[in-house]
Design goal:
- 55% of the residues lie in helices and 6% in strands.
- By secondary structure, the protein is mainly alpha-helical.
- A hairpin with a 6-residue loop joins strand 1 and strand 2.
- It starts with a helix and ends in a 10-residue tail after the last helix.
Amino acid sequence: MQTALEKQLSFLREIDRLKGVVRQSPLLDKSRKENSAEHSWHLALYALILSEYAIGQVDSHRVIRMLLLHDIVEIDVGDFPIHGGSSSEAQAVLETQAAQRLFGQLPAPQGDECLDLWLEFEQAQTDDAKFAKSHRPLPAAAD
């Protein structure tokens, strides 16, 4: 049986794969498309820097955690572009299965907490989740 530390290290090795998931959106300088790990990191920084503009009672630490976790499911299902024409219901099922598999690798209660945060982000009902979902990359600067 794996120890809690072994489970955590295994999870961290698994999520390293997020760096290989190429998204449809380019970097601001348009030199290449970003990967999902870069995307999650960048949005977490948005929350850190822009939290003063949140509406409602927002816990920026929770928002940052959500943003670091929100795209981990892309390891299994890839990036679904907003206008990609895929079924949102089918996508939701695949992403939920991926979240359960990935966060299930962590020891309890840590894995449960991560899954709960991921679900909260997806449902976008709380002030924290609404603020987390409101972040969008900045448009490229005009030349």
